[in-house]
UniProtKB/TrEMBL annotation, chain A:
It comes from Vreelandella neptunia. Residues 458-469 have a biased composition (Basic and acidic residues). [4Fe-4S] cluster 2 binds at residues 374, 403, 406, 409. Residues 541-561 have a biased composition (Polar residues). Its EC number is 7.-.-.-. Residues 355-384, 394-423 form the 4Fe-4S ferredoxin-type domain. SUPFAM superfamilies: alpha-helical ferredoxin (SSF46548), Nqo1 FMN-binding domain-like (SSF142019). Its cofactor is [4Fe-4S] cluster. Binds 2 [4Fe-4S] clusters per subunit. Residues 458-486, 537-561 are annotated as: Disordered. The complex is composed of six subunits: RnfA, RnfB, RnfC, RnfD, RnfE and RnfG. [4Fe-4S] cluster 1 binds at residues 364, 367, 370, 413. This is Ion-translocating oxidoreductase complex subunit C. The gene is rsxC. Keywords: 4Fe-4S, Cell inner membrane, Cell membrane, Electron transport, Iron, Iron-sulfur, Membrane, Metal-binding, Repeat, Translocase, Transport.
UniProtKB/TrEMBL annotation, chain B:
It is found in: Cell inner membrane. It is an enzyme of class 7 (translocase). Its cofactor is FMN. NCBIfam families: rnfD. The lineage of its organism: Bacteria, Pseudomonadati, Pseudomonadota, Gammaproteobacteria, Oceanospirillales. Its EC number is 7.-.-.-. The chain crosses the membrane at residues 12-29, 41-64, 99-117, 129-147, 207-224, 231-249, 255-276, 288-305, 311-329. Belongs to the NqrB/RnfD family. Part of a membrane-bound complex that couples electron transfer with translocation of ions across the membrane. The complex is composed of six subunits: RnfA, RnfB, RnfC, RnfD, RnfE and RnfG. This is Ion-translocating oxidoreductase complex subunit D. The modification FMN phosphoryl threonine is found at residue 177. HAMAP family: RsxD_RnfD. Its main location: membrane.
Length: 561, 346
């Protein structure tokens, strides 16, 4: 079925997918050494929990999630931990490829909490590009009713075929992964959105859906084939196209009852749940004219980009640049001595003829072509003027932060103005200003956190002292007990309030982190930590009070009869 | 950040993409050729000498100002925009206009109208129309007399060099344009009576029609090549036709017919080559429609009630004035914004 709805604008860049989608999916050779970056997901970097010299197997936890928006990190080869620094962990291979898996979970029977815990401890993040921790995304159901799970298989960027190959090779697995997430978030339907330039994946999906057994696919799945047009794979654009729902500006798909996942992520979810396999490898598209054997590979995270490309037959004399991601939204790599991360979906080794540098910029002549291709219906050339003169008030009023940085405007600009670069810089500048403006506020939050931590420590100390005291005196003295009226009710209320404020802080953080992945989350993490300290303090006070009451209650009972 | 660019690749869907800015201007230059050719066929070589002189002056003046402003000269001249301004002003002037007239017009266009505002992309007014309007109000005698078709004698070119008016054009009404003639027909005469007197030299009306159609052909090329979008021409011609029809139906004996308005004077030329100058036009699609419709309306109003026979230059300049306002009030509603913010000004 195709869709009648549409988003504005859009472009048709050359697809150039044939180079990588005609080759079967293969395993990349096992690297002899991996470099695991501590930050390969949105939010806070993970904290290493191994030391140099430690022996690890594939799947051993090597770094733990730090704060709420963060992700666990696992060894991707078996061997010995080498260097552990503030930014990365190096593992030298022993060549054995020994695995350490978690027990298998039956997702149909398993408790949602167990499934969430599994996603968390498997280090699963969105593999489409944003790298948002999947278990946080799955917890959206605590705050929003979700009716539809959208499987975003549009893969609208040129060159990239990782989702295409994932769907062709792991059709049933992806569908099962979708069922897991649909169950977790309580969705009533699953919609797969795919562009019509992937006929083999579409066929595979149609076959799988026809032959699906009702117990492996309890929820109805609808396959929607949409015309190829960039950027139909943008979350908002796809939701508009498939369901005719408008995600509000500054909002999330969850606000209209939708959750979006990429096929690669769904496959990783199934592997984590069914096989107990943490996220240690992913499918990467290797393409571009400067490599001899393009195609998609299963790559262990942390593999060097250079090794990977060399194995694919890199022709250094022809290479002009390597782009991580697609040619529209990806970033050129400054060095090839960089590891593959959870977010590396595509590596393009491009020749200069293939992706030539843009011609010299000429002045904007206000032709309005950018406006006609903008998928958000912004006025890119107005934004351009205001970005160049740094008129931030105007930029925000012309909805700079609604820009999804898809690059359609830069693509069509007849004056070759790097519009998206301008917007990107303007956004960073405004974000920094916001942080500057809120500095006093942040300082207050840090102070509050310190107070909360001290209070919690005090409360715990008190609790320990009381516990010791009550052990020393077998029978509590009536005088002391009765004079201290225990306000159990008040403490319960305080405890509930603390719990609510933790929930609120989590909600704010999860929302902000998803709305603008590039925003600094330090302050919100701090506020969450404060709320958590308060909760701990309230918990220990409540526990202590309960104990006291339990201790005094029998003595009172003795008195009364 | 976008490593792909439309100019470096072929569009996958096979659809035409907008040519780069540098070739954009060249396409417009190419599209003026049918108009120039037709005009010189009917009005003589004076048209071509006008165009050549104005274009050369345009480039020279732009280079001179760029030098004073210490800006790169070669790179800027490459965009051909000064050349284009010269061509557009050149075809607007009566054939074989005196050299100093063209010079004054080009100084007003390039130096005042464009470079003083910061060059290409920063000029609020259409430069060619700035030059034209200045000449029209300052030297009306030189500006309103057109040689009758096929009557330009070779002395015309000599007159251009010496800076005097070609003698043939001094012959009172013989040099008037159809619009001018109709404007000055007087209240007493009905339109039908006016046309019955055969007020214009033979072939004048059809010459102007052929010229208009030639501009339409050139404009068609620009539309096909996506150098211009349809919004402004369609809105402008639409409002010209609608208003002219309303007036004509209300009193056919006094008002000119809509076809007359469409095919004489600078209506088609203005709609396709002048009003579509993107720099001085509104930017959003809605803004462009309002902008074009405004020009069309002003053209009819000034032609009918104003003191000048034609009005494209004034209409365009007046609407140029409105562009900042149009841009402010025609901001499209981005996706994901509730409808209620539609009227909210940025």
């Amino acid at each position: 079925m195709s869709s009648a709805y549409d988003f504005p604008g859009g472009i048709h860049p050359p697809e150039r997918k044939q180079r990588s989608n005609q080759v079967a999916l293969m395993e990349a050779p096992l690297p002899s050494r991996v470099v695991l970056l501590l930050q390969q997901h949105s939010g806070q970097p993970a904290t290493p929990c191994v030391a140099p010299g430690d022996r690890v197997k594939v799947g051993s936890l090597v770094a733990k999630r730090e704060g709420m928006i963060s992700s666990d990190l696992h060894a991707t080869i078996s061997g010995t931990v080498g260097e552990v620094s503030a930014t990365q962990i190096v593992i030298e291979s022993d060549g054995k490829d020994e695995w350490q898996r978690l027990p298998s979970l039956d997702w149909q029977q398993a408790d949602p909490a167990a499934l969430l815990a599994r996603l968390n401890e498997s280090g699963i993040v969105g593999l489409g590009g944003a790298g948002f921790p999947t278990h946080i995304k799955a917890r959206v159901v605590e705050r929003h009713a979700i009716h539809t799970l959208v499987v975003n298989a549009a893969e609208c960027e040129p060159y990239i075929t990782a989702d295409d190959l994932t769907l062709r090779h792991y059709t049933n697995e992806v569908l099962e992964g979708a069922q897991i997430i649909a169950k977790l978030c309580g969705a009533q339907q699953i919609v797969i959105g795919i562009e019509d330039n992937k006929p083999e994946a579409i066929q595979a999906l149609e076959r799988a859906l026809q032959h699906a057994l009702p117990d492996s696919q309890p929820l109805a799945v609808e396959l929607m084939v949409i015309p190829t047009r960039y950027p139909s794979g943008g979350e908002r654009q796809l939701i508009k196209k498939l369901l005719d729902l408008n995600v509000p500006s500054g909002g999330l798909p969850a606000d209209v009852g939708v959750l979006c996942h990429n096929p690669g992520t769904l496959l990783a979810i199934l592997h984590a749940v069914r096989d107990g396999q943490p996220l240690v490898s992913r499918i990467v598209t290797l393409t571009g004219e400067a490599i001899a054997q393009p195609g998609n590979r299963w790559v262990r995270l942390g593999t060097s980009v250079k090794e990977l490309l060399e194995h694919a037959g890199l022709k250094p004399s022809e290479l002009n640049q390597v782009i991580q991601g697609g040619p529209m939204m990806g970033t050129p790599l400054l060095t090839l001595d960089t590891p593959v991360t959870k977010l590396t979906n595509c590596l393009i080794a491009a020749t200069i003829d293939e992706l030539p540098p843009p011609p010299a910029e000429s002045p904007c002549i206000r032709c309005g072509e950018c406006e006609s291709v903008c998928p958000v219906a912004l006025l890119p050339q107005q934004l351009h003027w205001y970005a160049r003169v740094k008129d931030d008030a105007k930029l925000e009023r012309y909805h700079l932060f609604d820009c999804i940085e898809c690059g359609a405007c830069s693509y069509v600009c007849p004056s070759h103005i790097p519009l998206v670069v301008d917007y990107h810089e303007a956004k960073s500048r405004i974000r920094l200003q916001r942080i500057e403006a809120a500095k006093a506020e942040y300082a207050k939050h840090r102070f509050e956190f310190r107070q909360a931590r001290l209070a919690r420590e005090e409360a715990e100390k008190q609790a320990r002292k009381e516990a010791r005291k009550s052990q020393q005196r077998r029978t509590p003295t009536n005088a002391a007990a009765s004079s201290e009226k225990i306000d159990l009710r008040g403490l319960r209320i305080a405890h509930a309030a603390a719990k609510a404020s933790v929930k609120k802080a989590e909600k704010t953080l999860a929302r902000v982190a998803q709305e603008d992945p590039k925003q600094s989350l330090d302050d919100l993490e701090m506020q969450l930590a404060t709320a958590q300290e308060n909760l701990k303090a309230a918990e220990s006070q409540l526990a202590q009070a309960k104990e006291q009451q339990a201790a005094t209650a029998p003595s009172q009972n003795e008195d009364s009869p | 950040m976008s490593m792909m660019h439309a100019s470096g690749v072929n569009d996958a869907a096979g659809a035409a993409v907008v040519p780069p800015t540098v070739s954009l201007m060249r396409w417009v230059l190419v599209a003026t050729l049918p108009g120039i050719a037709t005009m010189s066929y009917f009005f003589g070589l004076g048209v071509i000498s006008n165009v050549l002189l104005a274009a050369a002056l345009g480039v020279a003046l732009e280079a001179a100002v760029l030098r004073l402003r210490k800006r790169p000269i070669r790179k800027t001249l490459d965009d051909s925009s000064a050349l284009l301004t010269g061509v557009l002003l050149g075809v607007s002037l009566p054939p074989a206009s005196p050299w100093w007239l063209i010079g004054v017009g080009m100084i007003a266009a390039i130096v005042v109208g464009k470079q003083l505002y910061g060059g290409l992309g920063h000029n609020p007014f259409n430069p060619a129309m700035v030059g034209y309007a200045l000449l029209l109000v300052s030297f009306p005698t030189y500006m309103t007399l057109w040689a009758p078709p096929q009557e330009l004698i070779s002395s015309g070119l000599w007159a251009q060099i010496t800076g005097t008016m070609p003698t043939a054009q001094l012959d009172s009404l013989s040099g008037a344009t159809p619009l001018d003639a109709f404007k000055h027909k007087g209240e007493a005469i009905l339109a039908s009576e006016f046309w019955a007197t055969n007020p214009l030299p033979d072939g004048t009306l059809s010459a102007w029609r052929w010229v208009a159609l030639a501009w339409l052909a050139g404009g068609g090329l620009l539309l096909v090549k996506r150098v211009i979008s349809w919004h402004i021409p369609v809105a402008m011609l639409g409002s010209v036709l609608i208003l002219a029809t309303l007036f004509y139906l209300s009193d056919p004996s006094h008002f000119a017919s809509p076809i007359f308005h469409l095919l004489t004077g600078a209506t088609l030329f203005g709609a396709l080559f002048i009003a579509t100058d993107p720099v001085s036009a509104a930017t959003s699609r809605r803004g462009k429609l309002i902008y074009g419709a405004g020009i069309g309306a002003l053209v009819i109003i000034i032609r009918t009630f104003g003191g000048y026979p034609d009005a494209v230059a004034f209409a365009v300049l007046l609407m140029n004035l409105c562009v900042p306002l149009l841009d402010l009030y025609s901001v499209p509603r981005p996706t994901g914004h509730p409808k209620s913010t539609r009227g909210e000004q940025p």
